[in-house]
Write a structure and sequence with these properties.
The protein has 2 domains: about 90 residues, no CATH class; about 35 residues, no CATH class. Helix content is about 50%, strand content about 10%. The chain is built from 5 helices and 2 strands, in the order αααααββ. A two-stranded antiparallel sheet has the order 1-2. Helix 4 packs across helix 5. The N and C termini lie far apart (about 40 Å).
Length: about 130
């Protein structure tokens, strides 16, 4: 199968991506880091084993687009607009509903806010903080 930069993802390809993304260890790694090239290289290799030939950049772009669209629809639903919908919403809801909520609770020495997990360790420790 040819995989050009502008080639649309088929329904089967998206389902394969979601099946890999749904794995607990993948979800944990994706949530816990901002520098995630290595994770997407691994995801691309896993997809190849499933017959989906996409490079890591395509996987990351699709991941980001799906997540953005999901959050847009979820926000609309929470605001009372149930007319907004998307394909794979329920699959994404199952994957993303377990992400820990983040809240801004601390500032560093330069006055910048640091996002910490609501279930994080005591303030002042590095455990639980998102990397900048």
């Amino acid at each position: 199968m040819e995989s050009g930069a502008g080639k649309h993802w088929t329904e089967e390809e998206v389902k394969a991506l979601l099946s890999v993304w749904a794995e607990k260890n993948i979800r944990k790694q994706l949530y816990g880091t901002l520098r995630n090239k290595g994770i997407f290289i691994y995801i691309a290799k896993r997809l190849q084993a499933l017959g989906v030939y996409r490079d890591w950049k395509q996987c990351r772009a699709k991941y980001k687009n799906l997540k953005y669209e999901y959050r847009t629809v979820k926000y609309a639903h929470n605001s009372g607009d149930s007319s907004k919908t998307m394909k794979f919403f329920h699959d994404l809801d199952a994957i993303l509903q377990y992400e820990p909520a983040t809240q801004l609770t601390e500032e560093d020495a330069n006055g910048r806010c640091l996002a910490t997990l609501s279930q994080s360790a005591a303030p002042g420790t590095t455990e639980g903080k998102k990397k900048k």
